[in-house]
Amino acid sequence: MTGAIELGLDTFGDVTVAPDGTTLSHAEVLRNVVAEGELADRVGLDFFGVGEHHREDFAVSAPEVVLAAIAARTERIHLGSAVTVLSSDDPVRVFQRFSTLDALSNGRAEVILGRGSFIESFPLFGYDLAQYQQLFDEKLDLFAELLKQEPVTWNGTLRPSLDGQRVYPEVAGDLTTWIGVGGSPESVVRAAKYGLPLVLAIIGGSARRFAPLADLYRRALAQFGTPLQPIAIHSPGFIAETDAQALEELWPHYEGMHNRIGRERGWGPTSREQFEHEAGPDGALYAGSPETVAAKIVDSIVQIGASRFDLKYSSGTLPHEASMRTIELYGTVVAPLVRERLAALAEADPVSSAG
Fold first, then answer.
1. DSSP strand E in 195-351: where?
2. What mean pLDDT is predicted for residues 138-151?
3. What pLDDT digit, counting tens, does each position of 272-289 carry?
4. What does the pLDDT read at residue 329?
5. What is the pLDDT of residues 93-109, one digit of tens each?
6. Using CA atoms, how far apart are residues 40 and 138, in angstroms rounded to an integer?
7. How confident is the model over 317-350, as pLDDT tens digits?
8. Which residues of 267-291 are buried (b: 16+ CB within 10 A; e: fewer)?
9. 170: which residues sit within 8 A by CB, 6+ positions away?
10. Which pLDDT score is estimated for 3?
11. Distance CA 138, CA 116 (A)
């Protein structure tokens, strides 16, 4: 853990319900996501990430377009994907879209590249799932070349080669690029190989379980002769005035989302007991009062040695109004608490806090 801690938000643009229980259209959800990004900027948060999906229950299939709309209405917050499914996209087009976003936002664009935990984009864009790993490996290799912003000569087997070609628009500086991983040691080492920052998607269990992966990443960076890079945490959460209120409000939407996805993947139904365990000290759900959520974030940052924490604040059909309240509390109450406590820990033990 080095330098200032960043606190961000992530959303997948989950299709939500109105206060009267009616389901919103994709268009309404997209406009609400833009409003949520605007609020995140106003309350002083550092990052706003938008995920990419190609299914009925998530409204965002083109994150860069949504982020560009947010960029036009904000001033300082960094804007990025969470994640971009590089395996089923073209690296050149991804670079162009995010370099365009970077220009429009005056240098605030970021991209988080990943393989994605949903597979709908593969048949949609004509990719063979049997090549799931090979597609990501090859396309990440090309994207790393594009980041150098020099004429690219590159050869692959699944995408046409490039011979001394430049890609436009260029970025004024560097395009901040992260690799998002879900817990695979191979993915962690791959991020270190390319010298790219790491996002750990911790969506189940304690952050403590992921500390060995963070250590592996740092060791791999050293072995590749690469300077230390930031590590971020992505985890779900919800904030209300009290712990009891947060759990009661979140539970029906959390249950519905998990059971819907679980049926697709062969999981059993989730229970209230499992939900409350995940919301406890040893789980990956950061749900509760500002005090509870801040304490859990501080513990996770210390365990991982992270420099950023991104709260995935959307959860299934959870209404827009509840998400807005979470954003407000996260920016105005939780973030100051987290920074204050981390600063106190650093003052008490400056050697450990230096990483």
1. 198-201, 231-239, 286-288, 308-312
2. 98
3. 999 999 999 999 999 999
4. 98
5. 999 999 999 999 999 99
6. 35
7. 999 999 999 999 999 999 999 999 999 999 888 7
8. eeebeeebbeebbeeebbbbbbbbe
9. 99, 149
10. 64
11. 15
HSE-CB at 269 with a 13 A cutoff on CA atoms is 5
- Choose among 256, 333, 255, 258: nearest CA to 288: 333
Please tell me the distance from the alpha carbon of residue 176 to that of residue 171, in angstroms, as a whole number: 10
Query: Position 196: which residue type?
Result: L
| Residue 14, strand partner residues | 58
Q: Which residue has the tokens 């499992």?
A: 274
Phi then psi for residue 166, to 5 deg, are: -100, 155
Q: Is 167 helix (H, G, I), strand (E, B) or coil?
A: coil
Strand partners, 239: 288
| Paired strand residues for 177 | 111
* For residue 179, pLDDT beyond 60: yes
**pLDDT tens-digit series, residues 225-262:** 999 999 999 999 999 999 999 999 999 999 999 999 99
- Residues 94 and 84: their CA atoms lie apart, in Å, by 8
User: Which of 114, 132, 134, 113 shows the shortest CA–CA distance to 123?
Assistant: 132
At which residue do the structure tokens 């606190």 appear? 7
CA 82-4-78 angle, 5° bins:
35
Residue 64, amino acid: E
CATH topology of domain 6-353: TIM Barrel (3.20.20)
The CB density around residue 220, as the number of other CB atoms within 10 Å, is 18
Residue 116's pLDDT band, with cuts at 50, 70 and 90, is confident
d(CA 186, CA 166): 31
How distant, in Å, are the alpha carbons of 159, 171, 211, 244 from that of 167? Answer: 16, 10, 38, 52
